[in-house]
Amino acid sequence: MNAPTIRLWDPVVRLFHWSLAGAFLANYFFTEEGENWHRWFGYYAVAWLVVRLVWGFVGTPAARWADFWPSRARLSEHLRALISGQPYHRLGHSPLGALVMILMMALMLGLGVTGFLMEEVDYFWGADLPLQIHELCANGLMALVGLHIAAALFESYRLRENLPLSMVTGRRRKLSEH
Ligand code: HEM
Ligand code: HEM
Hints:
Elements (H helix, E strand, L loop, with lengths): L4 E3 L3 H20 L5 H23 L6 H4 L3 H12 L11 H26 L7 H32 L3 H7 L1 E3 L5
Antiparallel strand pairs: 1-2
Helix pairs in contact: 1-2, 2-5, 5-6
Bound molecules: protoporphyrin IX containing FE (2 copies).
Keywords: Cell membrane, Membrane, Transmembrane, Transmembrane helix
Subcellular location: Cell membrane
GO molecular function, one term: electron transfer activity
């Protein structure tokens, strides 16, 4: 039996997501540090950050910052549900998911800025600090990505719905009436 689904994530959100994931993993594991591919993957990801920032104001309803901004009230509601073992089911980002999303975007921006300083600004040539911050951002982002993937799988199990697939097809199951 196929449950009815609705279109939730528009193509911009999905392209943004897999571009960010691909560029991050490529640079963390495969490209030569600081070389051409590394730089271009990094700038590609930063360009998507800008697109996504704007899309959060003009895009489809579930893509908008206002829809999922993790305010204190939303975060505490989500935390309470988590602590009491209730699944938190909504068609869109959960508050804690959104918080992690924003932190991941900030660290990606940090990677772009420190990479730019190391590569393009003579003043920082050979300086230690940008590299240290770059490394910190890369490892911090890797930790958040681990948490993000674990949470996506955990919530998929609890909701009996394939959330990663929704970032591919854009579709989510309709909420059933309780
Ligand atoms: C590897 C680096 C990754 C990064 C940096 C990343 C980052 C993000 C960001 C920024 C969003 C918000 C999307 C938006 O609203 O525009 C998001 C959502 C999401 N990501 Fe990832 N992601 C990564 C990998 C993955 C992987 C491997 C999976 C699959 C297991 C995954 C599953 C999801 C899901 C299911 C959502 C939507 C969550 C929801 O329903 O609220 N992500 N991710
Ligand atoms: C997706 C974004 C990025 C990721 C995940 C990433 C990741 C990394 C990692 C893990 C290292 C090794 C740090 C260490 O030595 O411990 C590194 C080094 C470096 N990255 Fe990136 N980076 C990104 C973007 C950029 C950008 C946009 C630039 C430049 C425009 C850049 C330039 C460099 C340079 C110059 C080094 C140091 C090479 C050396 O050891 O001298 N990175 N990066």
